[in-house]
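Question (not urgent): is this output format expected?
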Amino acid sequence: MLLKRIRLVLAFALANLAVAGLAAPVKFEIKAQAGSSALMAFSAQAAVEVVFSAEDLKEVRANEVIGQFEPEDAIARLLQGTGFAARRNSGGKFVVT
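Got this back:
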């Protein structure tokens, strides 16, 4: 009975972490490249949708991101110093502005 309660509490805690937007680290291998291409690679590797203007980002040079990171950290590193930033919307998509 106690084990069943512990499992229920753990399941509830994990569900709350997912809702809060905390994701497990993902292995990224994104070389420095045009912003639009880098965001497409990020989207594929993180298995998450990213909304951005390809026209605005085609001339921007995104940073290399290689290693294990939570998606929020990886996209922040990718865009650092570019003048663009990403935020996660209520639907779980990243929106780059």
